[in-house]
Amino acid sequence: RVLERVRETDQDLYDRINTSGSLCVRRIRGTQSRLSSHAFGLSIDLNIDGQLDNFTDGKTQLGLTILADFFRSEGWVWGAAWGREDSMHFEVSRQKLDEWIQAGAL
Questions:
Q1: Which of the residues 26, 71, 86, 106 could staple to 79 if both were Cys, CB 3.0 to 4.6 A apart?
Q2: Integer Cα distance of 52 and 17 in angstroms
Q3: Do the beta carbons of residue 106 and residue 82 sit within 8 Å?
Q4: Which pLDDT value is given to residue 58?
């Protein structure tokens, strides 16, 4: 739904979006016991034009900043706001997940 809204609003940006990973059973970087939300299919890492946004470098691609507004409006969380900035990470919020469960979508 998020990406469909991007496509309807900004076809150029939509055409430049690439995935850097989604479902991947692994631990959160730097931890020994906490699974990543990627392990449950609740997150996606995106990039623009195939250029990765470096983890924790304090910088963010403009296209990811624009995408963040689309994701936030649909109830997703953006990793750029975390203590360990992860600008290419978009994650379903607990509230959105609960909505999907209530609606029988999951």
A1: 86
A2: 11
A3: no
A4: 72
Per-residue pLDDT reduced to its tens digit, 52-74: 877 667 778 888 999 999 999 99
DSSP 8-state symbol, 27: B
Token look-up 């940006």 returns: 13
Helix (H/G/I), strand (E/B), else coil: 47 = strand
* Residues with pLDDT less than 70, the chain: 27, 55-56
Question: pTM higher than 0.85 for the full model?
Answer: no
Judged by phi (left if over 0) then psi (alpha if -120 to 50, else beta), residue 105 lies in: alpha
Task: Give the amino acid at 8.
Answer: E
Q: Alpha-carbon distance 49 to 19, whole Å?
A: 10
What's residue 56's pLDDT? 66
Distances in whole angstroms, Cα of residue 74 to Cα of each of 50, 51, 57, 69, 84: 24, 25, 26, 9, 23
Q: Are 63 and 16 in contact (CB under 8 A)?
A: yes
* 97 token code pair: 């997940």
